[in-house]
Specification:
38% helix; 13 helices; 7-stranded mixed β-sheet; binds pyridoxal-5'-phosphate; alpha/beta; 4-stranded antiparallel β-sheet; 13% strand
Length: 465
């Protein structure tokens, strides 16, 4: 069931909003007749039925989390104004709300005096961070791990900055030893530390990256588009916890409210520790700055028009669910992680499956046991399809087979990459549904693999770290 309880609250809020403009003379409403509108809206709903049920806990595939009801309603409410946060002229109230909401995000990393703003998403946010990085170190290289989001390589190309990938270890984290060796050459301008990789949620070794930055003088950019909010949680493993604790020492941070922050798409955020980088954005457009002498959002972002509604939604969500350790929002993040750990333990205790490594955040990757990597890859796709028939929606990913090397045992390593099953357990409710998810996954595996011995995987200890 799609939740509908919030609509009376929205109608009330629309009246409150309307009251703010009651002094204006009445004007003609040019909307089409309500019957035609209802017809078109229903046709839209029918088209939208052709989607995976992203809002449901049995959707446990890609990084998709439904917006919080308050975000959805606040966004819809703001649509009656349709503010544009490119400048104060376009969105006075929502510009102020954006500044407040972004200040609260920056406070998670201990930043008070910083520069930051919302933008279209993680790609735009990383573009801005690397654009600033490139201006500060124009002749030097951008480095990110082999498992960093593909956007970094592509953005570097757009910015005409040289990009190089740093190898990963067998847990999908940047190999700090390889980075140390590479940095010796002295031509590294910026290192991107991914705080939760897209494929496996692996956390790069930020403390080691920071120590190398100290030695070699490169910038550190933390791509926490996915993982940024985990800084509020208290059930991370020791290694990830240590890395998140140091995030405030990065030069720039990207975090996506439209991933874990319960926002509709179109809400990324970039933060710079040194507010002085604002000078790099300076332009002298004669048409955007008429109404205020105050520095506004259009002067510190690359995008021009941006939805003020995104700021209203974020502001409302953070008002309801403050970004604090031990709070309801943090607890929701912890529940997703708990679900991932529970699924990992179930998989680990079942001989039909082989896990890679323990999840550092809330993403689990695994394959069915098979005679070879090729066969496991084929079976992964079959289990994916079988689970979807049962309304359990997982994802498939193509990852280095060496992520499994400690656990594959007699499986023939006939390919360098393996097609695996991947589950992103980012909804708090996943922790209540893990039993059901497991039953459906188990039935799907039975269908594809036949009845098998389910005794635990014969594998070395795989501590949750
Ligand atoms: C670590 C990371 N960085 C950047 C991005 C790109 O973000 P967006 O899809 O919002 O542009 C993603 C998307 O999944 C991501 O996981």
């Amino acid at each position: 069931m799609l939740d509908q309880e919030g609509w009376p609250a929205l109608l009330e809020a629309i009246k409150t909003l309307d009251a703010g403009f009651s002094g204006l003379p009445v004007h003609e409403n040019s909307a089409p007749g309500i019957e035609r509108l209802a017809e078109v809206l229903n046709a839209t709903a029918e088209r939208l039925q052709d989607n995976y049920p992203y809002f449901h806990p049995l959707y446990a595939g890609q990084m998709l989390k439904p917006p919080h009801p308050v975000a959805r309603l606040a966004y819809a409410l703001a649509m009656w104004i349709n503010p544009n946060n490119h400048a104060l002229d376009g969105g006075r109230a929502t510009s102020a709300m954006e500044k407040e909401a972004v200040r609260e995000i920056a406070a998670m990393y201990g930043w008070k005096n910083f520069l930051g703003h919302l933008c279209g998403g993680g790609t735009m946010a990383n573009l801005e961070a690397l654009w600033v990085a490139g201006q500060l170190h124009p002749e030097k290289k951008i480095l990110a791990s082999e498992q960093a989001h593909y956007t970094h390589k592509r953005i570097s190309g757009v910015l005409q900055l040289e990009f190089e990938a740093v190898p990963c270890d067998a847990r999908g984290r940047m190999d700090a030893g390889a980075l140390a060796k590479r940095a010796e050459r002295g031509d590294v301008g910026t290192v991107v530390a991914t705080m939760g990789t897209t494929a496996t949620g692996s956390v790069d070794p930020l403390p080691e990256v920071l120590a190398l930055s100290e030695k070699h003088g490169f910038r550190v950019h933390a791509d926490a588009a996915y993982g940024g909010y985990f800084v509020l949680t208290d059930n991370l493993g020791e290694v990830a916890e240590r890395a998140f604790r140091r995030m405030g020492e990065a030069d720039s941070i990207v975090i996506d409210p439209h991933k874990h922050g319960l926002q509709p798409y179109g809400c990324g955020c970039v933060l710079f520790r040194d507010p002085e980088v604002g000078r790099l954005y300076k332009h002298d457009s004669p048409y955007t700055y008429f109404s205020s002498a105050e520095l506004h959002l259009g002067e510190i972002s690359l995008e021009c028009s941006r939805p003020g509604a995104a700021a209203a939604a974020l502001w409302a969500t953070q008002r309801l669910l403050p970004l604090e350790k031990g709070g309801e929002f943090a607890h929701g993040m912890e529940r997703g992680r708990k679900a991932a750990l529970a699924l990992f333990e179930k998989l680990r205790g079942d001989a039909r499956f082989v896990t890679a490594f323990a999840p550092e955040l809330d993403i689990v990757v695994f394959v069915p046991k098979a005679a070879s990597v090729s066969e496991a890859s084929v079976l992964s796709r079959k289990i994916f399809a079988s689970a979807a028939k049962r309304d359990l929606h997982l994802a498939v990913a193509e990852l280095p087979a060496r992520f499994w090397e400690a656990n594959l045992g007699t499986t023939k390593p006939d390919r360098e990459t393996i097609t695996c099953l991947r589950s992103v357990l980012m909804k708090p409710e996943h922790s209540d549904w893990i039993g059901r998810i497991w039953d459906l996954l188990s039935s799907s595996a039975d269908e594809i693999l036949g009845a098998h011995d389910r005794s635990p995987q014969p594998m070395p200890a795989n501590p949750i770290q």
